[in-house]
What we know:
Layout: H1 2-34, E1 44-48, E2 62-64, E3 68-72, E4 79-80, E5 91-96, E6 99-104, E7 112-113, E8 116-117, E9 122-123, E10 129-132, E11 135-141
Parallel strand pairs: 3-4
Antiparallel strand pairs: 1-2, 1-11, 3-5, 5-6, 6-9, 7-8, 7-10, 10-11
Amino acid sequence: MYNIFSLIFKYLFIFIIYYFMFSIIRLIYLDIKGIKASPLEKDTYLKLINRKDSLPFKIQEVYNLEDSITIGRSNENDVIIKDPYISKKHLSIVKDEEEYYLEDLNSANGTYLNGDRLMDAVKLKNGDRIQFGQIEFLFVNQN
């Protein structure tokens, strides 16, 4: 009788180990599958400087820039960020003659470029830091 229980527990233990290894391999596969394409495929993008896990709302690491985008809490924006310190329509980035311009859209808490509050539209250059609400982005333009 003891031998039968020993044999059953032995195979049960081996099954549990293989199931555990399968679960870990599956999680690694799903994690790798979930990684999006590299931002380097696009020439111009906003890169999040903050630690993503330190923010109390969902946000992407990278936002590719096309001709123009608006950022704010409202669902009408191109980039929607549910930060309570961001206005419904907070700022816009517009491409004009191969240059990008940042403009604050009369937001309550303001938009800061390299630590200075924006009062008018400003031309962006590679490496500029854009801060609004609890968020700080790095403007990357590889042209």
